[in-house]
Amino acid sequence: MASRKEAPGTLAQAAVSHGLGMPRYVFRTGIDAIAWWGVFMLLLVGAFCVMMTMIIQGESGLAYASPFIGLGALCFLGAFAIPLAKVLAPVEWCQVYEYGFVYQRGARPPVAGCWDEITLFNRFDIKIVRNGMTMGYNSSVTIDVPAGRVELTKHFPAAKQLIDLLQDDYYKARVHLALVAVQDGETKAFGAWQVSMDGLAHANGLIPWTEIKKIDVLGPTVEVYLRGELRPAMKVPLDDLHEPTVLLTVLDRLSRAAR
User: Fold this and answer.
1) HEC profile for the chain?
2) pLDDT of residue 86
3) What percentage of the chain has pLDDT greater than the value 70?
4) 219: burial class by Cβ within 10 Å (0-12, 13-18, 19+)?
5) Residue 100 pLDDT > 50
6) 69 and 49 in contact (C-beta within 8 Å)?
7) 90 with 107: CB under 8 angstroms?
């Protein structure tokens, strides 16, 4: 039986079957971080209840000590349940490969997916602020691939680092696939805009790459500036664009190449 600290062989098997390439990073949820201070406090309260039970029993009888007996029993039960639940909790694994990732929770079948198979990548970052200072972030992400849905949360000790790596590789792959498709003669649709080797197509026509000076993001709006003009020739809300991060990177690469 494999150790809970060793990555299960099913991760590598799923990666091979999906052709994910060489492994790069592996993360697992923490199984050693037990809240010992909580266990100690429960034992302390339990010991206090035992002492009070003995005192009350000697003076007034056992019936009057029943509240302390019940509270003490709950405290001792909780003191044993906390580390036991932590040890028996299923370990989650996420291994990042060249061309995708594999996720597995406990004995469940692994979920593997290539970067280009991802249909949903929703990330959430909650800032932790104490006394006006940012102490860190609680990061989580939901990823949909044909094999299933993966939800990575703060239970991973390095959740933000893991999600940063996944997001970086995901967007790199999406940009690469989009550029290859456009260079092969396809027209990629990104919501209100379509991208091809001819230029940036929108509802009112086509802007050749040689005419685009720069593309800026101003708040919730994307602005396109043409050569020789000071004002933006076009403004589009970010909400009208599909995969804006990928789109803006592709636009920047293509417009720079045409200069």
Assistant:
1) CCCCCCCCHHHHHHHHHHCCCCEEEEEECCCCCCCHHHHHHHHHHHHHHHHHHHHHHHHCCHHHHHHHHHHHHHHHHHHHHHHHHHHHCCCEEEEEECCEEEEEECCCCCEEEEHHHCCEEEEEEEEEEECCEEEEEEEEEEEEECCEEEEECCCCCCHHHHHHHHHHHHHHHHHHHHHHHHHCCCCEEEECEEEECCEEEECCEEECHHHEEEEEEECCEEEEEECCCCCCCEEEEHHHECCHHHHHHHHHHHHHHCC
2) 64
3) 88
4) exposed
5) yes
6) yes
7) yes
- Overall size of the chain counted in residues: 259
Name the residue ranges covered by the structural domains of the chain.
9-31+89-179, 36-88, 187-257
Distance, in Å, from the CA atom of 76 to the CA atom of 58, rounded to the nearest integer, reads: 22
For residue 42, pLDDT beyond 70: yes
**How far separated are the first and last CA of the chain, in Å rounded?**
60
Q: Residue 211 and residue 198: Cα distance in Å, rounded?
A: 11
Q: 195 pLDDT band (50/70/90 cuts)? A: very high
Domain covering 9-31+89-179: architecture = Roll (2.30)
Provide the b/e sequence for 87-112 (b: ≥16 CB within 10 Å): eeeebbbbbbbebbbbbbbeeeebbb
Nearest 5°: phi and psi at 212?
Answer: -85, 125
pLDDT at 31 over 80: no
* CA distance linking residue 251 with residue 244, whole number of Å: 10
